Structures are given as C-alpha cells and as structure tokens.
Amino acid sequence: MTDRKKYFDNINSNRSPILQFADRFDQLLKATESNSVEDLLFYAGYLESSNVDSIKGRGTLIRLQCQGLEAEDLFEAYRESWGIPIFYENLLTVSDFKNGFLWKFRDHTSSWSEDQEAREWFYTNIEARFIRKYEFWSTDRGSEEVLFRKSGKYKEILSALIQEAEFGPLISPVFTKEELQSFIDLHDEDDLGIRKEVLTDIIEQNINW
Q1: What is the layout of strands, in order, in the sheet containing 145-151?
Q2: pLDDT under 50 in the chain at which residues?
Q3: pTM as predicted
Q4: What is the distance of C-alpha 64 from the center of its chain?
C-alpha cells in the first residue's frame, strides 16, 4: 500500500500538457464543450509542435480522437506523464476520453480497491475539468450497476454530488475560498448529517482555503 501511495504521489506531481493553455483555459473548455474540431485541432497542432515527447503525444491524441480513433496505445504510453494514474480494475481508461480530453468519470464504491484514490484525483486534477458525464457504480445488489448519473459541466457535477451529501468535492480547487467559507457559514449539521468539524477538516484540504 505504501508503494501505491508513492506511485500516486509521483504521478500526481506530473504536469499535464493542458497547462500549456493556462492563459486561455476558458477558450479550450468552450472548444471541448462545443466539439469544435477546428479549434481542437489548432490546440493539437500547438502541442505537436513541442520538442517534449509527452506534450507532443497529447497533441497527437487530440488529433487522432478528433478523427474518430481511440488511440489506446498512445494514451497508455503517455498517460502517466500527463498525470493520469493507472488505477487497478480499470477505473479510468481511454474510453473515458473524447477528442483527447476526459468526458466521463466512472466513480465507484469501495467494492473497487482504488475508488478513493480515483475519486481524489477526479476532485483535484486539471484533467477532470473537461468532464461532461458522471456515473456512480456499485455492486451492492450483486451485478455491477450505475446508481447515479449526472451530466453537465465539471463544477455543476461536483455541486450536485455535494447536494447528495457527498462532501469530498469540497477539496476541489474550482471552489473559491469565499464559496467554501459560505458553505461552512450556512451549514446546518442536522440538515446535512455531518458535524461541522468534520466538514471543516475536508475543506481545509482545499488549496484555496
């Protein structure tokens, strides 16, 4: 288990090629939302012009997936250098990506061994910002099934999870310090079913706090 912790620490410290567009991140989000292939190929070309193989590889993934190819071999070759861990039991695969960006996250119960690690990655990694579909999987009734689905933008999905009394998303940096403080101030233990000190412990993990 210690080795896996070191593994996740190492992978999560890798810088995503998406951060090349930090100064125009909103435009990139809009391009993925509208499935604007022309715009996405522009971003792909920019990344492919890099001298760094991992950055160039991400550009190629975007281009190939825009052409309708899954490009699994390319994805697996570079995913860790992009800060995307290989979770046990295939909790995140190339099939969760569209046009080179994460579009679906399959959350899981503790019946899967690295559900918590995958969930924390989803809450905190820049790669997750492009998601448009969330699923929560369970085996509580025997076979695998989806108990909860939500479509929308990343922050909308996290907010919906919080409304379902899943407070882990509060560690996500998409929530500002003001929003976190407001949530604590308005928090009613009886309504939410969680003690304020426990909620505060979660929020203190947010880098914006």
Answers
A1: 104-108, 133-138, 145-151
A2: none
A3: 0.95
A4: 21
